[in-house]
Amino acid sequence: MDLKEKLKDVPTSPGVYTMYSDDGTIIYVGKAKNLLNRLRSYFHKANQTVKVMAMMEKVADFSYIITKSEIDALLTENNLIKKYKPKYNILLKDDKAYPFLRIDLKEKFPQVTLVRSLKEDGAKYFGPYMISVNVSDILDLIHSAFKVRSCRQTLGDKKLRPCLNYHIGKCLAPCTGEVSEEEYRKEISKVISFLRGNDKEAEKILKEKMYRFSAENNFEAALACREKLKVLDKIVRRQITNMPTAKNIDVFAMRSDGMKTVVSLLVIRGGKITGADNMAFESVSEDLSEFVLQFYQKNPPVCDEILVESDDDVLEEAISELAGRKILLYSPIKGIRRQLVEMAVANAADYLAKYGDRERRTYESTEGAVLQLMNYLNLPKPPVRIECYDISHFSGTHTVSSMVVFENGVPKKAHYRKFKIKTVEAIDDFRSMKETLSRRLARLDDADESFSSVPDLIVIDGGKGQLSFAKEALAESGADIPIISLAKREEEVFYLTGEPIVLDKSSKALQLLQRVRDEAHRFAITFNRSLRQKTATNSELKEIEGVGKTRAEELFKYFKTIKRIKEADLVELEKVVPKNVAVKVFEHFHKDVSDGEAKDENDE
Q: Which domains does the chain carry?
C-alpha cells in the first residue's frame, strides 16, 4: 500500500506511531498530539533535517496506536523505545545511571556509601554525581574531614578492635563501644550538612589538619590534606551566587544540527552546581521529553524542580508520577533560574560544535580520505578495503611479509595476516613480494574471510621494483585489482603505469596511505623479531640435556620469551615438561646464582 494513501486513514487523535524498515524492523517511535499532522509532516521534504531524510529513505511502513491522552502517549512511546531500541531514537546508554551517596539514619552508627540505584528504604540519598565531579573523591574527602566509619562491619553489642582509621584520627571507632550513639550522630549530621552544600566545616577541619601535620613534619599527610582541599575548592567554585533557594534543581537543554542531538544537564544541590554532563545522540528526535523520561527511569528524581526551555505539563505529570510526589517542571522567564537554563543551552551548543568538529576530523581522516584517494588515483570505486604488504628480514634470514587491512580508513586487525617466505633464499625483496601476493591472491575463494574479501586497492611498501613484481603476481592470478606502491623517501605513489604520482603532503589521502604503509611495516618487523627470538631461544634450550626441538618449542609457546623461562620456578616448568627435564632447565639458568653472578636483565 502506498504510504501517502495510508495517511488518509490516520486519525487526528493523540497517540504513538512506529516506523518500519523493509525487513519489518522498528527504526523509530514517536508520539503526537495529532497523529495525522505529525505523520503527514514526514512526507513533506521541506524543512526536513538530513537525519530525517536519511531515515525516510529506509521507511517501508508505519503503524500507530491511539491513546486516551498525551500522558498515555508519552508513557507508551517510552515503553516502546525501551523494548525495541529503534535506531533513530534517543537511546540512553545502560551505563548512564549516575552514582549517589547514601546515609541510612535507621542504622545505629550510619555510614556513607556509594550506590547506583535509589530504593524506597527511608535512607537519605545525595546526588546524582556527574563525571565532572568524581564521587569517589567526595567520599574520600568526607572520610578525611569527618570521623565517620568507612568499614562494612555489622555493628552489634560485641566490641571489636579498632582499625587503622581510628589510630590515624579518621574514625570515632563505634565498633569499640567507646563512643556514644549521640556523639557519633553529631558527626553524621556534619556530613549531611556538607552534602547539602555547607562546606565551611569541612574546609576548617582539613586546614587545621594540614597545619598540624606540617608542624609535625608529617609532610606526606599535610600534602594529602591539601589535595582534599583542592577537591573541596572545585566543589565550592561551582557555587551559584545569589541563588535564592537551597532547593535541588535539575536543568536540561537540547540542541541539534540535523545529524546529531546533544542534551546538556546541570545538577544543582544546595545552591551549587554539583554535576554537569553533555550527552550526544545520532537521533531524528528533537523531543527533550523522550530523553528526560528515560533519564529519570535510570536515575530516580531527587530534585524539587526541573528547568527546561519550554513548559511541558505532560512530562511534569509523568515525572511526578514516577517520583511519587509533585515535581515542578517549567521554563523560567527571568532571574537566576533563567540564567541556569541559558547556561545549559550554551553548554549544549558548545558541545555540539566541538562534537561536530571531532566527528568531521574523524570523517576527513577515514571515509573522507578514502574518497579523496579514489579521486586522486582515478579509481573506479572508493577503496573501502585497502590491503598493504611489506617485507622484513634480518641480513637475509627469517624473511617474512605482512598483510594489513584497513576498511573505511580504519585498521581491521582481525584480518591482518603474516607469511614466512618459502621460495626465496637470499636477500630479494622483489621476489619475496611476488611470493606473498601470489599466495594471498590464490586464496580469494578461501573460507577465511580475511582472504575471501577482495581488496579495492593493494598497496605495496616500496618503489618501482616491488610494484613490478607485485604486478606479475596480480597478472598471473587473473585478479583485476588496482595496485600501487608507496616509496618511503619521497613519499611518491607509483601506479600501474609505473610513473610516480606526487600527492600533496597535507592531503588526507596521502596521510591514509602513510598510516597503512607504516602499520604494514610495524607488523612485519614485529613478526620478524619474534621469529628471531624464538630461534635464539630454541637454540639455547636445545643445548640443555633432555630438551629437543619439540620441547624447546613447547617451552617457548608457553612462556613466550627466554627471560620468562629463566625466571620460572620448578612448579611452572613442570606444567610444560617432565619433572626431570624441568630440573635440568632450572639448573641450566640458575647454575651461576650460587657463585654470586648477576643475571643479565637484558637477556630476552
A: 3-84 (3.40.1440.10), 100-236 (no CATH), 249-363 (3.30.420), 376-530 (3.30.420.340), 542-595 (1.10.150.20)
